[in-house]
Amino acid sequence: SKTRSKTRSKTRSKTRSKSRSKTISEIGRGKDGKILKNIKCGRVNFKKGYVAKKIYGEGNINKELHSKLKEIDDEEKRFNRYHMPENECAMSNVIFQRHLINLNNKKLSKPQYRYLRESIKILHENDIAHCDLPDNVMMDNFDNMPRIIDWDNAVMNIDNLHKEIDNNAFMTHFKVLKK
Known about the structure:
By secondary structure, the chain is of the alpha+beta class. Helices cover about 35% and strands about 20% of the residues. The chain has helices at about 1-25, 65-70, 110-125, 160-175; strands spanning about 25-30, 35, 50-55, 95-100, 100, 105-110, 130, 135-140, 145-150, 155, 175. A hairpin with a 3-residue loop joins β1 and β2 (about 35). The radius of gyration is 20 Å and the shape is globular. The N and C termini lie far apart (about 75 Å).
């Protein structure tokens, strides 16, 4: 009887973990973590345009930087910042961010090119440099405009060298589509 209940218990837990793994699916990997779909946390979920990011290792997040990004771009029209899980659903090394699509060829329309250039200018005016462009630019599904992502290498209180790093990456890697 004890053996049967242990077997049933193991079977139930395997079934539960299988069903959980089907609902939470990996949709991408970055150098600092995995992007996961269908994790919900309060108002932040996939249906509202957000994904979870399970950060590898310690996942030190610069909260001061993300607070500053929220201050200069509260609606995330230019900068994709991290959302920390609320207390009731806090998970180890998990943050939330807008779901964006890859920008494969780095070729932009004129409005997209200008928009990205302006985004970099806004960062510099607010004493922030990203320092890891061009791979950390993606497109927003809703307005088809570029967003700067992944802030691990960003620097606050910048000097001219930090600005040059961003500007050179922009000028070297992003081009305007020719019609």
